[in-house]
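Example 9 (inverse folding). The structure is encoded as follows.
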């Protein structure tokens, strides 16, 4: 495995032995020089300010149904039962997440090249983009456990070697997202502050963190301060709604004790100018099903016009 040079300067030190002050973000949120795209200027300004942007009623019902069918097929596939890409809930054993769905499902792979998706990612990141990670978080009814407050970038920096927060996630609701069934909560504006986390990364940490993250989470004081200053937003919307959110925004979700699953497809785009080096704060790289190392820029698969 080729080792890439690890830059000496680390602007975002984390997984430290003791708490240190939060670090102001140095990089832009919406990067200059990007192609024009489907996001309206006012929405782009809002994304820059808040760190997230919802696009409601975006995919057609038939498209969402096809993706739901794909997830059901993968969830029930006996060949995937012991596949490391399938992460199960600690207590119930229900499927919590399925990673690398873009390699397991042709309809998901096609979505990556859909101009309604790819052009938004390029517009935000200001460059060509590649796929860093895809996953379905199933949040099954009654047993779906939540995700404690975290910054995705903190993990991708510490454990995957992502240099800067020049990445964006799209969360697509495959089922209706309600306030009460684990709808994603975000602290608007928190994307402009990097919160270093306390605690060294254990070997093979992802096996635990993807089920319940305890290392790489901000301290309560920092969460309280940011939530007090900025409030808490929540993404809700019917199946087919999408949420774009910055790699460094603090977000989390509560347990789902309702009968209604909150099943969302997440795809993460990284700029080709921000490709992974070596982990900044972990003993070894994570496997490629959680952190792709094929940096080939994504190409459009269809000249479909944007409806949203
Ligand atoms: O470690 C990761 O890459 C994953 N962990 C969380 C809690 N969100 C982002 C990503 O799916
Ligand atoms: Fe996350």
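The amino acid assigned to each position is listed next.
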């Amino acid at each position: 495995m080729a080792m890439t040079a690890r830059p000496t300067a680390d602007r975002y030190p984390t997984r430290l032995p003791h708490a240190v002050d939060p670090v102001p973000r140095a990089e832009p949120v919406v990067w200059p020089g990007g192609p024009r795209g489907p996001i309206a200027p006012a929405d782009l300004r809002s994304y820059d300010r808040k760190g997230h942007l919802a696009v409601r009623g975006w995919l057609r019902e038939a498209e969402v149904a096809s993706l739901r069918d794909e997830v059901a097929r993968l969830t029930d596939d006996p060949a995937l039962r012991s596949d490391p890409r399938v992460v199960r809930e600690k207590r119930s054993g229900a499927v919590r997440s399925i990673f690398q769905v873009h390699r397991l499902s042709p309809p998901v792979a096609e979505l990556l090249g859909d101009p309604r998706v790819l052009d938004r990612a390029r517009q935000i990141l200001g460059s060509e983009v590649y796929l860093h990670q895809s996953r379905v978080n199933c949040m099954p009814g009654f047993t779906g456990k939540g995700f404690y407050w975290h910054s995705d970038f903190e993990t991708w920096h510490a454990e995957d070697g992502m240099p800067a927060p020049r990445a964006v996630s799209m969360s697509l609701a495959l089922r209706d997202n309600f306030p009460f069934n684990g709808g994603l909560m975000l602290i608007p504006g928190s994307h402009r502050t990097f919160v270093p986390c306390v605690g060294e990364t254990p070997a093979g940490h992802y096996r635990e963190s993807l089920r319940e993250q305890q290392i790489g989470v901000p301290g309560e004081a920092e969460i309280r301060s940011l939530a007090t200053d900025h409030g808490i937003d929540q993404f809700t919307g019917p199946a087919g709604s999408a949420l774009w959110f910055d790699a460094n925004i603090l977000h989390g979700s509560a347990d789902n004790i309702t009968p209604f699953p909150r099943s969302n497809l997440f795809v993460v785009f990284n700029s080709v100018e921000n490709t992974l080096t070596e982990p900044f704060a972990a003993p070894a790289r994570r496997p490629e099903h959680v952190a792709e190392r094929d940096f080939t820029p994504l190409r459009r698969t269809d000249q479909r016009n944007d409806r949203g």
